[in-house]
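pinging the channel bc i need a second pair of eyes. not urgent but kinda urgent?? the chain im working w is below, pasted from the shared doc
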Amino acid sequence: MARFLGIDTSCYTTSAAVYDSSGEPAGEERIVLSVKEGNRGLSQSQMVFQHTRNLPVILQKLSPLLQDIKGIGVSSFPRRRADSYMPAFLVGKGAAFSLAAALHVPVYEFSHQENHALAAISKHPSLWGKPFYMMHMSGGTMDVLSALWQGECMEITTLMDSKDITAGQLIDRVGVALGLHFPCGKELEKLALAGHHTYHIPRSAVKGAFSFSGPETKVQRDIASGKYAREDIAEGVLEHIGKALDKELSACPFENRPFIAVGGVMANKYLRSRVEEILGKKEIKVYFADVETSSDNATGNAFGAYMRHGLRP
């Protein structure tokens, strides 16, 4: 059976995945990068060090599936743009090309952003080659995008982004202030379930873009005051992000295209339901990756390699 390897070395996760010729995922492994308690991130040099250490461990775990590899998909850069570069992605790229040289197989390069989109498309292969909208919400990204296909690659145009910090950064910064471990998405979501709908954040006055720096300042001040329960603040932050999505997505003049919502923030079940509700009013169908593959992983790259290999002349 032919198999296809995917590799992704993003800012906070080392990952690899295998797709097989039946069109199904065969296996996936990942290691979340270690961040010291109380810190809100890592330098690129720290990311490169951890990826270099983690990737052999992950590939060893997947070794029973690494027979008959016919192609390798890898995130070589954050976005498919000439100015898009992060050293962390060079670890995965270097490993992919080294393995490909030894195995005499092709490498299919994707952006990290495309990898996220492909994780959702892998669940709905009929979307391959069709234009779509995409919202990418992760720790460092908050973009609404239009995606067209140029041959086998996506041409992605930004329709809307954040003017300051992203929703993911708001979640992580507030989470760390609440004593949660970075990255804070899962823990903050769990904490918010115990909220009592008593903590509310005023909407941003910015139009046509997202803005969360003002809300973060207010929340940090309120945390320091000790007047509000941790669970109520967590719930209020997610509610505020949902309202920001409602305000901006409702005003955006979308055509009738599929809408893909991806990235680690889109693993949040409350925000997923809000996006479906908002776009449902516009009669736009929303597609998600599985909750497990919404956060950083290499499944999209493995699927992309499988598709690109099958389309080769």
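so The radius of gyration is 20 Å. and The chain has two domains: 3-123+294-311, 167-288. — does that match what u expected or am i reading it wrong
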